[in-house]
Amino acid sequence: MNAPEQRRAPRKRPEYNVAVVDTITGQPLGHLGNLSSNGMLLIGQHVPRNEAVYQVSLNLPRHDGTMPTIEIGIQEQWHEPAASPGQTWAGYRIIAIGGADATQLELWLQQA
User: Fold this and answer.
1) CB contact set of 3 (below 8 Å; sequence gap of 6+)
2) Which of 38, 66, 69, 73 has its CA 20 to 30 A from that of 110?
3) Does residue 100 register a pLDDT over 60?
4) Residue 82, number of CB atoms within 10 A of its CB
5) 2: which residues sit within 8 A by CB, 6+ positions away?
6) What are the tens digits of pLDDT across the range 69-85?
7) Which of helix, strand or coil describes residue 111?
């Protein structure tokens, strides 16, 4: 039997490989596993610090061919080794997002 969904908002998987970049260092933090209006799963090669806060940017491919970039503040909630050696799964909560970026995120989440 499947456990009931515990998340506050449904998550969506990207159709393409979406890199998430730390805007402070310019280095990739990982690739987007899934995304919701209040959190994300990243698959990366580095283990994040517990409860670390990051300012990140990512491009969200749209069906009309555009790829708007959004910037958000996230905080690490958990992490664990992925099935592939050398990779880590990490869950993040969105803690800051501007109005225009929130609109772009919602538009992406609503795409079928």
Assistant:
1) none
2) 73
3) yes
4) 15
5) none
6) 999 999 999 999 998 89
7) coil
Given this model, what pLDDT does residue 9 score? 80
Residue 12 near residue 112 (C-beta atoms within 8 A)? no
SS3 label, residue 101:
helix
* Alpha carbon distance 17, 67 (integer Å): 12
pLDDT at 6: 55
Smallest CA-to-CA distance from 78 within 24, 21, 39 is with: 39
Burial of 93 (0-12, 13-18, 19+ CB in 10 A): middle
Helix (H, G, I), strand (E, B) or coil at 102: helix
User: What's the CA gap between 23 and 16, in Å, rounded?
Assistant: 21
